[in-house]
């Protein structure tokens, strides 16, 4: 025999269940559906960190010429300085694409080069560039001051937009060890530097003791005449840019500094950023160059779980920091109308088993067990959402919701599915049994269970695309209803 306490609980459950007006009769949720205020860009932290980071370098005195261009590194994450590879930081990202010529970098070269500054007269001590985005160096034939050979070298280096050409005297390795037997150094950079950045005067020991120290003469700078947009990173579309404004936008997840203007690196950091407990995966990044006191200083990737655009790209800098070359990129969502905003059969309250983009089905004998609603009260944002569990509360069957067309994936590529679920309509007790599975080609790859008090992002395990894949949601058992909104499938 049940104890009095248990009887009381059962009675309370029955009363509350019978008093419930189900969603299909425009009942109201047990508690209002609210969205948290999304955090905006922390521009102070970015500016402060830009004041600390040092990404300047020149061609080393002791390394052989023609070294490979090192991969893009991360120099700060969320205000903490670091020196790590992008792959280390973006550990959630499953792949690093092979570098192909000019993909993702600062820009492509077009129309030759122009002199940024000339070297000092022969014999006068000069200085080489110490600047950001150093790539590699070579030595060119020093029978003449061989500008053309240096520009040709830049053409051959992925991401090179600028070279610094100079003689380095008293370098033992150049004079006696390296096979080229030339002291005319050509240093390649992925960004353009001015004469103010000629700060490496040599003075380093290279010859055996007692030493004449190294010194530099005739240091000139040459830049690509025009720069064009980098190729969009895989899985992203350009939203705006280049402009002089960085985003100050909601849904901010944090930032990283990288050592080159490399949109592929930012995309990889966004993919590997992890999940915000309120907003879910990174869906947008803003890359820009910080110029401090006129000198390129670092390259920022700011990451967001909400897609921003040029209307919020209004941070032009602060103090000595100026924002340049700002571009926004949005992560492609392969789900058509993942927010159910395409359903607008009315302008207040209505629902249907399916529309042009989504199909809801009920098992035999079931009635509206998977539905699409137009009703802003149920939606995470906008007017549309979907419901699993009988809309009229007249059966306890689980429904199935699926996009009208299969997802157009790339065969063999990796994806993650994200959906926002809320299971709170009928209160904690009745929603305790709520359950919805996420299925990919019929296999369960994620789920939500039990009472969920606010729209919460839920991610699947990583899934593989086959080129045409069936996504579906299965579950709900009225009065343990679950609403769904903002469904996404994103490439990793
Ligand atoms: C990063 O670390 C490497 C190896 O430890 C070092 O050679 C390089 O100078 C460091 N870079 C920065 C920017 O600190
Ligand atoms: C990039 O970071 C790695 C790991 O810390 C380090 O070994 C490497 O030298 C760094 N590269 C540069 C160019 O600083
Ligand atoms: C050319 O480079 C070699 C090797 O560093 C050096 O010995 C020679 O003096 C240089 N010639 C000129 C004209 O600077
Ligand atoms: C929601 O519906 C109302 C009324 O039809 C409409 O004015 C509004 O623009 C809709 N909101 C969105 C985000 O579509």
TrEMBL record:
Residues 1-19 form the signal peptide. Transmembrane segments: none annotated. Residues 21-44, 52-71 are annotated as: Disordered. Residues 32-44, 59-71 have a biased composition (Low complexity). Keywords: Signal. It comes from the Eukaryota. This is Fruit-body specific protein a. It comes from Mycena pura. The lineage of its organism: Eukaryota, Fungi, Dikarya, Basidiomycota, Agaricomycotina.
């Amino acid at each position: 025999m049940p104890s009095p306490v248990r009887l009381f609980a059962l009675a309370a459950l029955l009363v509350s269940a019978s008093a419930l007006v189900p969603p299909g009769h425009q009942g109201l949720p047990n508690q209002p559906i609210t969205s948290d205020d999304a955090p905006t860009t922390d521009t102070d932290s970015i500016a402060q960190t830009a004041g600390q980071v040092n990404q300047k370098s020149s061609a080393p005195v002791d390394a052989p010429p023609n070294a490979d261009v090192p991969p893009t590194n991360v120099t700060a994450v969320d205000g903490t300085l670091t020196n790590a590879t992008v792959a280390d930081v973006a550990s959630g990202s499953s792949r690093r694409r092979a570098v192909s010529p000019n993909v993702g970098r600062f820009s492509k070269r077009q129309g030759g080069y122009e002199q940024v500054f000339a070297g000092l007269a022969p014999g006068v001590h000069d200085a080489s560039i110490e600047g950001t985005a150093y790539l590699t160096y070579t030595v060119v034939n020093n029978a003449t001051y061989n500008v053309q050979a240096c520009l040709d070298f830049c053409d051959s280096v992925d991401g090179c937009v600028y070279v610094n050409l100079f003689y380095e005297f008293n370098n033992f390795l150049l004079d006696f060890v390296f096979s080229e037997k030339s002291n005319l150094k050509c240093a390649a950079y992925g960004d353009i530097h001015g004469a103010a950045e000629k700060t490496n005067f040599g003075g380093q020991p290279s010859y055996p003791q007692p030493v004449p120290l190294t010194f530099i003469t005739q240091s000139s700078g040459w830049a690509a005449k025009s720069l064009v947009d980098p190729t969009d990173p895989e899985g992203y579309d350009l939203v705006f840019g280049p402009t002089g404004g960085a985003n100050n936008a909601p849904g901010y997840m944090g930032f990283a500094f990288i050592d080159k203007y490399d949109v592929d690196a930012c995309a990889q950091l966004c993919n590997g950023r992890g999940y915000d407990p309120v907003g879910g995966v990174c869906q947008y990044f803003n890359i820009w160059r910080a110029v401090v006191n006129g000198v390129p200083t670092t390259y920022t990737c700011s990451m967001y779980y909400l897609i921003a655009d040029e209307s919020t790209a209004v941070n032009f800098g602060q103090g000595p920091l100026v924002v340049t070359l700002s571009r926004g990129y949005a992560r492609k969502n392969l789900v058509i109308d993942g927010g159910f905003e395409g359903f607008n059969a009315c302008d207040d309250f209505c629902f249907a088993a399916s529309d042009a983009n989504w199909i809801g089905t009920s098992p035999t004998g079931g009635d509206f067990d998977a539905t699409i609603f137009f009703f802003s009260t149920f939606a995470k944002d906008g007017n549309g959402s979907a419901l699993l569990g009988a809309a009229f509360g007249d059966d306890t069957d689980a429904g199935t919701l699926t996009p009208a067309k299969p997802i157009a994936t790339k065969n063999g590529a990796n994806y993650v599915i994200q959906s926002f679920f809320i299971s709170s309509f009928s209160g904690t007790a009745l929603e305790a049994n709520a359950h919805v599975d996420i299925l990919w080609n019929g296999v369960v790859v994620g789920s939500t269970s039990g009472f969920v008090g606010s729209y919460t992002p839920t991610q699947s395990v990583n899934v593989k695309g086959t080129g045409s894949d069936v996504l579906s949601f299965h579950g709900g058992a009225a009065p343990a209803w679950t609403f769904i909104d903002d469904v996404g499938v994103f490439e990793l």
